[in-house]
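Consider this pair:
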Amino acid sequence: MKRGNGISMNAEALRVVLVTAPNREVATGLAHRLVQDKLAACVNVLPGIRSIFAWQGTIEDAEEVLLLVKTTADRWPALEETILREHPYEVPEILALTPSAGLDAYCRWVAEETTQ
């Protein structure tokens, strides 16, 4: 889709990235960094999730915070690199999902906000 501002964007070029963090402080710090560095247009911070997972031979049960990061496919490599560098977990959850559809104006906004 061609936009008046010269940015072409469709939903398939966006990424919604799921990242868990151990607490609100870490999550908020990551969120601010990603938006400030134009790696994400928006990050939702959802506290109070409970994660039950297998880790190093045991079943863990932890309170965590979920980040929903909105970015583009172009910004994905730098976003992943930043999270890996700044995240306290040895193996953080970083899952990029590709939307099949989205509001045109929202897709354009994400592209505009993540353009360097």
